[in-house]
Write a structure and sequence with these properties.
With 181 residues, this protein is mostly helical. The chain is built from 9 helices and 2 strands. It is 50% helix and 2% strand.
Amino acid sequence: MLERILGTPPPRPPPAVEALPATNAQNQPATVRERLETHRQKPQCHSCHAAIDPIGFTLEGFDATGKARRIDRFARVEIDTMGELPDGTRVRNVDELRTALLADPAPFVQNVTQRLMMYALGRVIEAHDMPYVRGIVRKAAADNYRFSTLITSIVLSDEFVKAKVPELKPAQVVQQAAPVN
């Protein structure tokens, strides 16, 4: 969520991170929330989990396929989907999470713009591309973040218009043309 939607991937975990506890203080199966709250008490874990967990708690009401669920998969009790975002905003469900995230759409739109440009250019976005990305986001902001404005701005950008397709050497052409068994 942080990386794909907001464009802010969490840092790598420190070495030798312990597994989450399977039981709570009453020696009962711990809920996902209890497991993570115990984990967050460690100073080396708290800073990252303060950003990760609130969104995760809200999304815990869905399984891996996106189907809604109300019961915790470990403790078999009702899931508590309340989360508090780093800015102090409290969210209970996906609608409130969406509203909170869209209160400042710029990070999301910048991430989408970077990913669209990466696709359009066929390469990773680098530091020298960021002025173009920021300009496209500003243009989209002036047009109420319309998706068509993002696409048009990318296609008309110097980066896209002047992009060069790398030449393939004859061996690469033959190798790419070979059928897959």
